[in-house]
Amino acid sequence: MSHKLKIAGWITVGALAGALTTVSLQTVARGTLAPLPLEELQQLAAVFGMVKTDYVEPVDEKKLITDAISGMVASLDPHSQYFDKKSFKEFREGTSGRFVGVGIEISQEDGLVKVVSPIEGSPAYRAGLKPNDLITKIDDTVVKGLSLSDAVKRMRGEPNTNVTLTIFRKDESRSFPVTIRREEIRTISVKGKVVEPGYAWIRLSQFQERTVDDFVRKVEEIYKGDPNLRGLVLDLRNDPGGLLDAAVAISAAFLPENVTVVSTNGQLAESKFIYKAAPEFYQRRSGADPLRRLPAGLKTVPLVVLVNEGSASASEIVAGALQDHKRATILGSQTFGKGSVQTVRPLGPDTGLKLTTARYFTPSGKSIQARGIVPDVLVDESEEGNLFSLLRTREADLEKHLASGQGPEVKDPARDKLREEARKKAEEEARKAIADRKMPELGSDKDFQLLQAINQLKGRPVLISKTQVIENKNEKKEQ
């Protein structure tokens, strides 16, 4: 990253353990410490001593200290966090797009793990796993009853170790074991295709280290197949975020050079910064700017950006920048509303502290925190309406969430009732056969919002939402 950046190191905007974050990883410790409240520290030491000597059974001293730090940081807001050795490793894996495992995209079906797709070239791909395969056992553990995250943890492990998966292949009506050797997997965060002649779709599932290079390659591939592109859909639905420099780069791919993409503001001097659409603001390493390979037409091709309640942080930065500069039409539902910046400082070789240090703002100065990006065109997720969006947690739903800093929040008192109705619909939907369910795969020919985005690009009528309510719409900006 360029020396011009005042916030040094690694900046990410993403999701970790369900908490959507904007993060700056600094490798340099703070030069000075704030004065310490001695009386309170004496109380802390007294409590530590009492627990150690008087508790019913011996306690681990290190665990007591770690839990005290975790509790102190967690009490601030939903996104500040102390990283122990294990969680720090998981955090770095999440932003690098690399992990050790078998290499499958998965979901849940009837309490089992369903293979959505094996990652091309991965151990699972070479072992012959197919989409729609169901995993019933991981080694000797029955999958039924496990959460998806627990199943993932059991399939991941150390490089060059084996895991045995018991597979049920429905179309062959048989179960069989497959032993797979784990290895480092590189996830693919960019998908895309020509939907029909002249119109293309590119989906970003997360902003990772390789996202910009993968995005450039996908755009080159699309333009090679259809050099006369007349419209493009950038799909950021359910994209929880990731690296901030990747978000700045994706924005810069569509915007004029040197315009503002996003700004940050907080108590620290280095947290007050403006990121612009120029290489020094998104390139981490020396070398050629990957965006220079993009077709010139990408700067002017008509653009629609798809967002929903699951679009957060880095996704909101991109959508906000393209909306404010009137470069794209934003279509879909109001986004998550994750607009705070966390700084991650290593506390040692394998532990760290993630602390909220700033809010970020769109080019026009709007805070996204606890509000989100409001689309130019509100479109439901299906023709029947926004069936399940109310079930998704947004930033404003999180306990102790940071306020926007631009006026009071306005809550919709009817939302809890609507959420209960949506929960019942979701339960009914889950009981239906897969072919009859109303929520098709994103990017498919039955993807309602994508079809509306193509209509928008063609100048055809769009089926706008008649039911969506914008949260905090009466929020007033304070100078």
TrEMBL record:
GO terms for molecular function: endopeptidase activity; serine-type peptidase activity. One of its GO terms (biological process) is signal transduction. Residues 409-440 have a biased composition (Basic and acidic residues). InterPro entries: ClpP/crotonase-like_dom_sf, CtpA/B_N, PDZ, PDZ_6, PDZ_sf, Peptidase_S41A, Tail-specific_protease. SMART domains: PDZ (SM00228), TSPc (SM00245). Residues 88-156 form the PDZ domain. Pfam families: CtpB_N-like, PDZ_6, Peptidase_S41. Keywords: Hydrolase, Protease, Serine protease. CDD domains: cpPDZ_CPP-like, Peptidase_S41_CPP. Residues 401-440 are annotated as: Disordered. GO terms for cellular component: outer membrane-bounded periplasmic space. Belongs to the peptidase S41A family. This is PDZ domain-containing protein. It comes from Ramlibacter pinisoli.
